[in-house]
Amino acid sequence: MTTNTMDREFVSLLRRRQIAEGWNDSQMARELGISRALWGLTRVGRKPVGRSLLRAVSRRFPELSPDVTDYLRADFSGRLPTLVPSSEEVQ
Prior knowledge:
By secondary structure, the chain is an all-alpha fold. 64% of the residues lie in helices and 0% in strands. The protein has 5 helices and no strands. It has helices at 3-21, 25-32, 36-43, 51-60, 65-77.
């Protein structure tokens, strides 16, 4: 899979969280501790997912740390990360 596909999947995960929390883009950026511009550009695919966003996600949403790890693993292996828990993980 391409990095662009991986980025879209990862951002989709974050957008689902943003929507679930009822946050607009400014609130999401504030919650992550990143600039509104960085979140906006990443969200629309004009900037790739980078270290600062991955660190911010791990820091603000520790429950998503496994997804950050999957993203990083996929980035190095070229496979799409599993961002939805498998049935074995949900018990």
